[in-house]
């Protein structure tokens, strides 16, 4: 196992404990966002250790997307009810909000916990959870009216019900240079101290105590502390998934639908419930790794170009309202094969929200051909 990183004579574990202690010193109300993943598991354990030492309670927030692994539900239950229940104020939220369904061209959205569909829910709602919105409807904000009230809207509206709180998130900036830049570029002033691992969140402040941890630091801490973790990681490791794909988030959005391919093996009962809950699941399970389908890596043989395939997908798209959103975005793009292939991927995945942005640049193959024509 690789050693824990050290910066300026302080390990990342020592730095995280120092940061969490600082937060407790300066904030009366502390809340942790958990997802059931490895990072939030480590963060929750560190925060609860500090809370026990100070004899304080912290809010533990989980926005339940319904279409998640059963292992995720079990892990969040463990964090809230077994680690240090005397220190936890559970904030398990199970309200209606929209999720994009990347597996179906006809049922493009899932309304989580939709009223009147109790018999189709992945599982019953949890007793003691928050089942209704805690804010007035007239005060509700929505980021994208095309999608309606979505995941981030639920997060933001719930958080706005509080003021002066520290919200702790298990974000690790080392996963992405963009994350690192977003976290560190605008320091937050906390009682005269500039904090570079935090961002303002309206009347609250978001903190990222693990922002400089890497993948190995997280797993070393879990092993050293003997913490329980989602067993999905074990299945993913045995299947040889790369680190970047070892995730336990929603099963149906643009970045994680490939998890459905392994779901019958990992959690067969979850797969059966998901098939009953949504259209497109069985098809995604069969074709999720196919280069011609959701990945859009290989051009179907009936088409001479990606542009021709894109135009076919636009003309035959069953949800023309959502398709029109993508077409308007495509009108601002370059017209070449490199761009068209990515546009096909967005059309196939119903990515009208632009969660997988198109790399809008000249086709690298054209540049390579021009280079060799010049030098040969």
Index terms:
single chain, 376 residues, alpha/beta, Rossmann fold, 6-stranded mixed beta sheet, 12 strands, 11% strand, globular
> What is the global morphology?
globular
- Helix segment tally: 14
What is the number of domains? 2
Instruction: Give the C-alpha Rg.
Output: 23 Å
Helices and strands, in N-to-C order?
EEHEHEHEEEHEHEEEEHHHHHHHHH
For the largest sheet, list the strands in their spatial order: 5-4-3-8-12-11
Largest sheet report: 6 strands, mixed
Count of distinct strands: 12
Poorly predicted tracts of residues: none
Name of the CATH architecture of the largest domain = 3-Layer(aba) Sandwich
The CATH topology of the largest domain is given as Rossmann fold
Q: Could you characterize what this model shows?
A:
There is one protein chain. With 376 residues, the chain is of the alpha/beta class. It has two domains: 211 residues, Rossmann fold (3-Layer(aba) Sandwich), CATH 3.40.50; 70 residues, no CATH class. It has 14 helices and twelve strands. A six-stranded mixed beta sheet has the order 5-4-3-8-12-11, with helices on both faces. α3 links the parallel β4 and β5. The longest helix is centred in the N-terminal third of the chain and has 17 residues. The termini are far apart.
